[in-house]
């Protein structure tokens, strides 16, 4: 079953732009990215959009559909009524390159600031032994396809460019949690999570979890446990006293 | 004179998938300044799509496994056309490469005793695939991406700059490789996708790691990046391609809805117990075990089902035959009227294990079918059919170093050729990337270190490259001859899919070559609108040239090979022909047009397999593939004579 769908797509660049109206054919089973591709092939050959796998695995085609952060390739047209106007806009938390393409370099900068996996010195390659139940926690976070929709939706930076300097966003706070929960990692990132990556900015509204296309429980399984670990280290009176008495820690 | 942004590196790696990242890690660890250049964002390469796992004979699931068994499986899978030296290196080194990933932070699924879990896959004798659910490729990419970050952190500590020794240029596409007067690699020319501005990389060595060619076909599991850039650039620079007629159609791609047709359904579904059925409910694969594999696969459903729990006393299910066999079988079932409503067959895991188990083992498959097709795979069977997945053919390289016939040009991964022969086994791609990515990185590093002086880029070459890249913006002479790149791409894909697809005939390939010649003439008249800033029309116009060259290589080689073997099936020559086993078809560029050159194809003999490797096989098996004259040195033959 085909019909003519009504679309409004944001077009422009860093100097500004506006929503443009298009009428496009929609066929059974299609996703929003199919429509964008049809627009390119038939009406707007220079319409800029990022995409790669078209199967929800690479996290390239992130944008906002009717204001909600989504992967264009996993947003089925059957979600919408046939007479509904569908508005496609670029991710709001990042600056515009062109049309639906945004500058996501913030994420790559933050990724570089998280201390990497620090392997145990006494284990040679092939000697690593870990139980499934122990790796499972970090594995959940490693499902992340880095679509950056959680970064886009997080209110700490969505309309607060000034917070970007001190806040790494759910994606990279989760990366810290992943490394902290890795059974064989030897580094301690609890202080830096709070001091350098802005864990304290997060007030667990769970917006990131809500938009995650991989259904990762970012807030419940990564951010809250990470906050607990920081609190345990810094504010637990028994730990504090122990550190004072035995001059452990910093 | 063209204005370009200039960079200078010891080694540049083109492509940021598994092979490219592993090569870059190696070159940087050797102390060389290294750049990685990729068309997409860092971390989005096609390797993320690999699902099932990475084959390595660690023996964690079955202690009988060894590199020799892996080697034999690989050669069988490729129908003995593989470059045996590559297959040997691959089988021997894969376990070390997987273990190394753990030291980078990878978290594979575990066995009971805490080691890396390994799963069954088509053509592998033992459970051999290290995996993370069904998202193993993502784990590989992310692990190596994070290893690169960790090397950058070391450089930041030492030099005060993350990018002092290792820099990633993402969303940057290369359009020309440049050589100096002596014919050695001197640099690469390209453009930033974001701004459309030109960029020049001066370098001593280039590692090509651009992946495959699937976007030349209509139904494919490959992403937009798979336009054969590495194949085409190497060919145009004077390197040779081998085995281009061998294209792997993965037996199980989604067939419905139309917009997702071709998206991969992992072989892990069958490895973990899923079975193929036709519309009559028959497990048809039992009827399709070819002569060369007779005796190696179960002959009844009961035996096949017992094999999952007792592999030592039962033979494996024919659902796990190598991919070429399964894809052809599905094709035949559909053709003979026993297909599913949307032109595939059924892949059933729902009736074979509890829903929770399916969700745990195959989470992305569950998710993919639920979201894209409204199918709950824990309750109903999937509909699947063949999809263009992988090209066995690629740049001809030295097995140990990855060096091509052009000095300074190296290649690894899917864009190189030889390792997989006529058909790749599932799971052997991720291990290939790691083993040969590392080797190409070492090869390039050694080559650069041996250079007495750095080859120089000529200004005239830069000017020429810029002119060629901008030609789609020049208005065509007459309005009527203006061509739309999207239309031409569609026609190219249709031609390759219909006429040089999974089943081929000489007549159809000739027809395809006729259509390709016509499309090639029109490629010159492609005109793009708009400006250079992130303009997908322009990007496609440039990629189209590469797809053109690659498609002609596939079609021409396919026409010459008058037999059926692995990923090349000729309806008019349906049998394996021992006289063809040792023949490689070598593609080279020729003619006047340097942008979309003509392709010539010539046969060439392979180096015979080393004696100790030959002796790993029973004579009775080799006789199915080899000519009698080739087997006179096998000890069993000599025994017969005595």
Mean pLDDT of chain B, nearest integer? 95
Judging from the principal axes of the Cα atoms, what is the shape of chain A?
elongated
Task: Trace the largest sheet of chain A across and list its strands.
Answer: 2-1-5-3-4
DSSP helix fraction of chain A:
25-40%
Structural class of chain B: alpha/beta
Taken as a percent bin, the fraction of beta residues of chain A is 15-25%
Residue fraction in strands of chain B: 15-25%
Contiguous uncertain segments of 5+ residues of chain A? none
Number of DSSP strand runs of chain B: 19
**What multimeric state do the chains show?**
heterodimer
Structural class of chain A: alpha+beta
The number of helices of chain B is 19
* C-alpha Rg of chain B (nearest Å): 24 Å
Please describe the biggest sheet of chain B, giving its number of strands, its sense, and whether it closes into a barrel.
7 strands, mixed
Task: Find the count of extended strands of chain A (DSSP E, 2+ residues).
Answer: 7
Distance between the termini of chain B: 75 Å
- Mean of all residue-level pLDDT scores of chain A: 95
- CA radius of gyration of chain A is 22 Å
